[in-house]
Amino acid sequence: MTIADAVDVTLSAITTEDCGPEIAAALRLVANQLLREAVPGDPGISAQERAFLIESGEFTTEELAETEASVARGDLRELENRTLLKAIAASLSESEAAEKLGVSRDRVQELHAAEKLFGFEAGPVTVYPRWQFTGTRSEGVLPHLAHLLREFLPDERDPASLQAFMTVPKEDLTFRGERQTPIQWLLRDGRLDAIDDVIEGERWY
Asked: First and final CA of the chain: distance in angstroms?
């Protein structure tokens, strides 16, 4: 199988129907790069470390063996790669973001640099997750987006993790007895301190 064939197989598991040509090109480029970098993992666990993990009760012998085998097969890398590609597919290109907001591409770059818009690198281009855009507000993005982005520590701004946080209903964000996603909460002008508390609380898991 050629790299091109492998890219096709990899992307067949990703929903790309709503992707514009720039995002589609970024997906192929990143998938190609990830596949070329893929090498079997090395568990890197010494005999002493293995004994400690078993004796401490963290793993049974069978569980540790299964975990090591999974890492060696590259399962974790494959999952991480697929998650990244899904995050790219759920994003807008710079030109699409500019059109969505009714501004220039230069302005999109300024908003990103000022942390008023979230973007991440996908190969040689920057893409902008769809979850932060809204057609129900004149500003075109979620209310208090800049505040929200400031609350996340730099190492918490993984695109897939942010998307999961924003789109999963939270127990501490309820409206009329129903759990809300942070997106729904912000669109209802919910209290910012409630969002801040959820972010802080999830750091302990």
From this structure: 41
Helix 3-11 and helix 75-89: axis angle, to 10°?
Answer: 70
Nearest to 148 by CA among 115, 111, 187, 188: 115
Residue with tokens 């220039």: 104
Look at phi and psi of residue 122 and say left if phi exceeds 0, alpha if psi is from -120 to 50, else beta. Answer: beta
Query: What's the pLDDT tens digit per position in 18-55?
Result: 899 999 999 999 999 888 876 555 545 556 556 655 66
Q: Cβ of 159: how many Cβ atoms within 10 Å? A: 22
Q: What is the pLDDT of residues 66-96, one digit of tens each?
A: 766 655 555 567 777 888 899 999 999 999 9
pLDDT band at 138 (very low <50, low <70, confident <90, very high): confident
Q: Do 91 and 129 form a contact (C-beta atoms < 8 A)?
A: yes
84 and 31 Cβ atoms separated by less than 8 Å: no
Angle at which helix 159-167 crosses helix 75-89, to 10 degrees, equals 70
Q: How far apart are CA 95 and CA 12, in angstroms?
A: 25
Q: Which two tokens stand for residue 49?
A: 């470390």
Using the Cα atoms of residue 77, residue 36, residue 24 and residue 125 in order, give the sign of their dihedral: positive
Which residues make Cβ contacts (< 8 Å) with residue 113, sequence separation at least 6? none
